Amino acid sequence: MSNTALLVMDMQAAMLSSFGAGPAVTAKVATAIASARSKSIPVIYVVVGFRPGAPEISANNKGFSAAKQQFAGIAPADFMKIHPDLEPLENEPVVIKRRVSAFAGSDLEVLLRSLKIEEIVLTGIATSGVVLSTLREAADKDFRIKVLSDACADREQEVHDFLTTRIFNKQGEVLTVAEWTK
Q: Pick from 68, 63, 64: which is nearest to 53 by CA?
């Protein structure tokens, strides 16, 4: 078993459509998933999700309060559905988080430790959201980190570029999907 895991984060159909992330990102993530599976690297999906009515979202949380309004009419199970081009296999875990970081309010760390994972490879949207928050927390938890820059996206390309070229490399390694899959 590999001590590396690929994290596919917030690649939910509802979020991708509201985010405007195009097929280029999902195609890159799909390539990373196929490569991981071919090398027996565990693929772990992370979705943001809440109970009906989202009681976990405080009015004090500016970002999540706005999202609560935006996704109010979507049933929690529908909101958490992963994009059809990226669906997990039956044996691949789906971790539900309650905040921005993949670790926040989830059992991700327990799962990674039980699989003896020491290195995580990050993909997802948004670069300035789940990717940044997860990278920072994973570094504090002593994981080795790789970020697949072209398998991440942000609403603002300049923010994505700044993070992937100036910030992420201070706590991990930044690669393209092609570089990682060689």
A: 68
Say how many Å lie between the first and final Cα of the chain, rounded.
19
Question: Mind listing the pLDDT tens digit for each residue in 6-63?
Answer: 999 999 988 887 666 677 899 999 999 999 999 999 999 999 987 777 777 778 888 7
Q: Residue 46's beta-bridge partner residues?
A: 9, 95
Burial class (CB in 10 A: 0-12, 13-18, 19+), 96: middle
Residue ranges per structural domain of the chain? 4-181
Two tokens, residue 37: 């599976």
The model carries a pTM of: 0.93
Strand order in the sheet with 119-125: 94-97, 43-48, 4-9, 119-125, 144-153, 173-175
What number does CATH give the domain 4-181? 3.40.50.850
